[in-house]
Specification:
alpha/beta, 8 helices, single chain, seven-stranded parallel beta sheet, globular, 46% helix
Length: 255
């Protein structure tokens, strides 16, 4: 399917590995001009080169620390200088510190707020003016299944990712008349370094998947990326304000 976004400018944060990288490469295959942002220059260069090989109109890496507001602002300025505005934003950040409510100090809440909520909101605020001027835009936030069903031992993710989804739902109503769609992904168990860190070993991770997920396995990032790319495309122009689970059926709620 041609998603109709060839030449559009797409920014993917957290795009040097895992889910972010898979999404960036899926968009590259659709011919976007790709800005991929993350912490490590070497990984960014490799992703940009792979994106060009897959058919991206242009592809460049932009170093950023998503927990640092100054770094986020500087990255956005560099992307805008390079491309003159962003048409597609895939807002992706690393997960906050795991733990229970009683284990979290106020400093942990502050760090989680900045990395998961505050700086994601800053990314979204930065892209809206250009999208509004062009009367076209796509915003997709990669969140967590915790926004639909809280996950034990991940209180910060449960709190701040849910707040982000709520804010973006409100934004989708505000931006709908301007041809801009805003959606969120309730990410299930995808095989990334973050997921591996939450388990003692691969055997424990596989056993948990068989117990909790109807498809009885975790997904690869490459299985995750096509839905995100679709939401960024022209055929998805009537889908907005949604939180779509990519979780192998793990979430038990109806909505």
């Amino acid at each position: 399917m041609d998603l109709g976004i060839r030449g559009k400018v797409a920014l993917v944060t957290g795009g040097s590995s895992g889910i972010g990288k898979a999404v960036a490469l899926a968009l590259a295959a659709e011919g976007v001009s790709l800005a991929v942002a993350a912490r490590r220059d070497d990984e960014l260069s490799a992703v940009a080169a792979e994106a060009l090989a897959l058919g991206a109109t242009d592809a460049r890496g932009f170093k950023v620390d998503l927990t640092d507001s100054k770094s986020v602002r500087a990255m956005l300025e560099r992307v805008n200088d390079a491309y003159g505005g962003i048409d597609i934003l895939v807002a992706n950040s690393g997960g906050p510190k795991p733990g229970t409510f009683s284990q979290m100090a106020l400093a942990d809440w502050d760090t989680g707020y900045h990395g998961v909520l505050r700086n994601m909101v800053e990314l979204v605020q930065a892209v809206v003016p250009a999208m509004t001027a062009r009367q076209w835009g796509r915003i997709v936030a990669l969140t967590s299944s915790s926004v639909k069903q809280p996950i034990p031992n991940l209180v910060l993710s449960n709190a701040f990712r849910t707040a982000l989804v709520s804010a973006l739902k409100t934004l989708s109503i505000e931006l709908g008349p301007n041809g801009i769609t805003v959606n969120s992904i309730a990410t299930g168990r995808i095989l990334t370094d973050r997921l591996r860190a939450l388990y003692d070993d691969a055997e424990q991770m596989d056993a948990a998947a068989k117990a909790d997920i109807p498809l009885q396995r975790v997904a690869t990032p490459e299985e995750f990326a096509p839905m995100v790319a679709f939401l960024c495309g022209e055929p998805a122009r009537y889908i907005t304000g949604q939180t779509i689970a990519i979780d192998g059926g793990m979430i038990k709620s109806l909505f």
